[in-house]
Amino acid sequence: MAGLNCRVTVALLGVLLLGAARLSRGGETYEIALPHGSNITVLIKPGVPTLPANVCSIISKKWVTSLSIKAGETAVFSFSCRDPENHFVIEIQKNIDCMSGPCPFGKVHLQPSTSVLPTLNRTFIWDVKANKNIGLELQFSLPRLRQIRPGESCPDGVTHSISSRIGATMVRIGTFCSNGTVSRIKMQEGVKMALDLPWFLNRNVSGFSITNRSSIKRLCIIESVFEGEGSATLMSANYPDGFPEDELMTWQFIIPAHLRASVSFLHFSVSNCVKKEERVEYCIPSSTTNREVFKLQDKQPGNIAGNFNLSLQGCDQDVQNPGILRLQFQVLVQHPQDESNKTYVVDLSNERAMSLTIEQRPSKLSRKFVPGCFVCLDSRTCSTNLTLTAGSKHNISFLCDDLTRLWINAQKTISCLDHRYCHRKSYSLQVPWYIFQLPVQLHDFSWKLLVPKDSISLALVPAQKLQQHTHERVCNTSFSYLVASAVPGQDLSFGSFCSGGSIEQIQVKQNVSVTLRTFAPSFQQEASRQSLAVSFIPHFKEEGVFTVTLDTKSKVYLRTPNWDRGLPSLTSVSWNISVPQDQVACLTFLKERTGLVCQTGRAFMIIQEQWAHTEEIFSLEEEVLPKPSFRYHSFWVNISNCSPMSRKQLDLLFWVSLTPRTMVGKRRSTRAQL
């Protein structure tokens, strides 16, 4: 009874507290304490438009219409009205001096935390001062930024206003919303960043970081990343006002290899130059001239393949009549209109121990003339096959009448050099996205997985359970995995596997090669639903262990590794077969005898039910293999080979099917009655 009263009391208290919180909306007391040396200033001031002071005031030591809190100070205050967000705004400015001491690079935090601030429209300002030769880079996390004209508003109320310095003059780089393409902005000599957050948004992260860069030797560099079709509208600094005199501003565009970009100037004006000439310059790696210079009045490039830079260069202006240099332009990214003369970018700069080869498929010789089929690097060097290596970005194109005559073979090595670092680590074996962008079908993608000897083993775990390819149950999917030993001198293939089976995991003792082999162009859609993860696990002695969870719908066919050549000498493999509680498994072997004759060692098979821990041991050299038998619990099958005397090798095929326990019980009862 006491427990019941306690629960009732807690529930009533919760209701009362909730009601009190809602009723005390206007009288809530806030405390803001700014640490010494934090260089943070908080200012609460009337919003725009300003309402009469008697409508709402700040109650601190006295009733005021604004409140300033500096570093080292603590302020306790409240508001005289219930809706202060309609009357006041709060500005939090942090000054960062990178000229007299080290700069705090990395993720930028909201300080003080939004949890201690009153629910007003907030503006966080970071004013970073740096040496003229120091570059500063703002990196924005997803979603990236979208530039808007000054005076425009963002749908969610979150606005980024970014400025830079030229001496004592502030230059407005731009105003940005979320959900765009701008990922990075590089400046030098300092940066001022203002983040506006609406009062109703519960956000506690800035969404950007600051990193140190060498001098960029220009006003700024804006990076814009496209991941698919779309457009971006961008503006010169200070737009729609004039671009700073004799300055240089660059935009970097990252474009997927299968798309094309076109540039169009929406609005622009030019200044009156007395020295130099205003111009825009394109740096297009796929172009034969690389750099192309245009006037603002010229028609701008279209159908650009690959990444490119666009730079705006100002001039020395006439003092009496300077004019205004300004530019608003759009970059449109879409699928190419013209299928010929396409360039593809294969970015392997972030890859390690990887190579990608585009080569001709094997074909029958023909007496008829067959046009050449070439792969070109940088549109200059062409050959019938091309190997791209890791650590670089490659621009390729094709001179070929039929791209189905080519295919791609790729290799990647994943190494574990220190077992203390690798233990329990996991990697996803997936085909990189840039391969899918190429117009040539992937044939093989191989991962070579290397581990220290006798200290680490490997576990392969598929997203969907696998089926082993056998003559009795053929894989008819668009791709499969070939798993084989990568130990030098060891000839051991664990088999070919495809999705749609009962194998949950394949554990291998040491180095292994996993090859994704495709059989149809449709493999890309199927591969997106299937992935393979590899993890490093404690070392074990058997060459391989297969974990099998039986399916009630069909038989599961399993066979020993190296089926065509026989299990290697002195090799041991196991199958861990799980049987559902309401089912009984029937274990059947294809052959009655192996015909094996051992020169050294013994070949044997152990069947062990995991529940009873009882073992059945069979000599594979002398005894007849067991007849079909029921297994009422999960069980192990272990097969160990000897060193055979003759050419006859050990190869075993067996299958397992499930029957409901009730059906097996009825059969036994019927036999007993007979």
Automatic annotation (TrEMBL):
<feature type="domain" description="CDCP1 fourth CUB">
    <location>
        <begin position="344"/>
        <end position="431"/>
    </location>
</feature>
<dbReference type="Pfam" id="PF23665">
    <property type="entry name" value="CDCP1_CUB_6"/>
</dbReference>
<dbReference type="InterPro" id="IPR056266">
    <property type="entry name" value="CDCP1_CUB_3rd_6th"/>
</dbReference>
<feature type="domain" description="CDCP1 third and sixth CUB">
    <location>
        <begin position="541"/>
        <end position="655"/>
    </location>
</feature>
<feature type="domain" description="CDCP1 second and fifth CUB">
    <location>
        <begin position="443"/>
        <end position="518"/>
    </location>
</feature>
<keyword id="KW-0732">Signal</keyword>
<feature type="domain" description="CDCP1 third and sixth CUB">
    <location>
        <begin position="218"/>
        <end position="321"/>
    </location>
</feature>
<dbReference type="Pfam" id="PF23668">
    <property type="entry name" value="CUB_CDCP1_2"/>
</dbReference>
<feature type="domain" description="CDCP1 first CUB">
    <location>
        <begin position="31"/>
        <end position="98"/>
    </location>
</feature>
<dbReference type="InterPro" id="IPR056965">
    <property type="entry name" value="CUB_CDCP1_4th"/>
</dbReference>
<dbReference type="Pfam" id="PF25142">
    <property type="entry name" value="CUB_CDCP1_4th"/>
</dbReference>
<dbReference type="Pfam" id="PF23667">
    <property type="entry name" value="CUB_CDCP1_1"/>
</dbReference>
<dbReference type="InterPro" id="IPR056268">
    <property type="entry name" value="CUB_CDCP1_1st"/>
</dbReference>
<dbReference type="InterPro" id="IPR056269">
    <property type="entry name" value="CUB_CDCP1_2nd_5th"/>
</dbReference>
<feature type="signal peptide">
    <location>
        <begin position="1"/>
        <end position="26"/>
    </location>
</feature>
<feature type="domain" description="CDCP1 second and fifth CUB">
    <location>
        <begin position="109"/>
        <end position="212"/>
    </location>
</feature>
<dbReference type="InterPro" id="IPR038811">
    <property type="entry name" value="CDCP1"/>
</dbReference>
<protein>
    <submittedName>
        <fullName>CUB domain-containing protein 1 isoform X3</fullName>
    </submittedName>
</protein>
